[in-house]
Request: fold
Amino acid sequence: MRAYLSVFRLRRRLETQYRGAVVGGFICQVFFGLILIALYRALYAGKPQPIPLSRITSYVWLQQAFFRMLLASDADLMDKIRTGSIAYDLCRPVHLYSFYYVRILAQKSTGSLMRGIPMIILAFLLPEGWNLSLPASLPALLTALAALLLGLTCVTALENITMAFTMRTLDFRGMQALLNLLMMTLSGNILPLTLFPDSWQPVITALPYAQLLDAPIRLYTGEYSPEQAPGILLLQAGWILVLVLAGNWFWRRNQQKLVLQGG
Amino acid sequence: MNTLRLYARSAAMLMKSQLQYPASFLMQTLAQLVMEGGEMMAVILLVDRFDRLNQWGPGDLYFFFGVMSVSFYLTECFGRGVTGAFPGMVRTGQLDTLLLRPRGVLTQVMCSAVDPRRIACIAVGTVSLVLGSSLARIQWTALKVLLLAEIFLCSFWLILGLFMVEAVLCIHSVKSVELANTLTYGGRSACQYPVDIFPRPLRILFTVIAPFALVMHLPASHILGKPLFGWPMWTAFAAPLSGFLVFGMMYLMFQHAMRFYRSTGS
Reply:
């Protein structure tokens, strides 16, 4: 247990080192957020929707704030797989899946907190119609926070599965690009899931990708009422269980028939 | 002319080398196809929900999306040396070898990489153009075809010029400066849609500083028969030339920056 804790701490430190990248990423995210909101405002001006505009703007800002969570982050591990130096990690007396799980968790949580908190403050201060609104209610905020935590564990489990795929195929770029695209589209980053056709909603909200950010955001904005929260948290927990088990199985299989890259 | 022949030969060579691993190439091209298809799906879903965007109908929106998609990925395909490979060259000191050869640095950078996988994105863009053209019932004339060709030509240089902002900053700071790409990638995302839907500050940004509106939207709106800002036809032919202006300015800055280039030595 202590080993995993120190891995977590080390990775957290590493993530806080590149402050220039954080500032750059932050400005980039704000710019994209403003562009998206300008677009949705123009669309709403033409044909108002049953979902109020303020929910859409909040959705956009929260997506931008926690964008780092979705981004595949561990370039280091990719290199290790490609060059074969992952062999060193195999020698460590740790459970490999958990080892990487903790690494990725540390990166994602630290990275998104560092960008997310300033962005949320900034988004609150923007003028009416462009800003992040307050949460629907106190229970909404609390359940949204709980859902966000579950979302974080869920996205980490997903990324571990992507990694396992990478170990299989070696040429990771194709597969990774596909999985990342699924992530960006189905988690609501490119277009809020609430704006997808109504007939698609039951399917897309049940997928694991909707558990990452979409579920917490909908709880925050009041799209889901606090009474619905237990069901949603349960769905998230269910997906986490499935993804962790699947990831574990995948990694074990990989370790059994691993071909290392030499050279 | 000599330079152009040199570029054509190295591009052909690079394409051939990338096709040596067909399975990997196919997989990555497929990924690109799905990626750009996903972007297009977002536009389709928005059209499905909102029907129109100010004065622009579905056909117009697909047409604008297609113009951006084809232009942007043509640049990424043939200008890969500038749009992708350059920061790495500075970081690893690979740029030093280019300084020794009897050709311009920028020519050699352009000759150093192409990205044929982008053909998939260009294909999606073309589908969107055709779809938009038939939905908006565009009456094609020789003049309009010429205008479309001018859009692609000028936006190639515009986008290349914008990517050179990063290259210039990179020469000074060694580290790749992702912030500089806000303008290029942000511009791509925003200017998939006609510029007049945005509030004034963004409109000025995309007209004066990064003139996507002049190079793409103004001529495209004339092709669609709904002139942007009510400007006359001759402006649609003149405005895209600002793409060359941006490239020219960035070219001079690039040459200036190279005087301060210091090798990383590795």
Remarks:
- The first helix of chain A runs from residue 2 to 17.
- Chain A has one domain: 2-256.
- DSSP finds twelve helices and no strands in chain A.
- The CA atoms of residues 99 and 137 of chain A lie 38 Å apart.
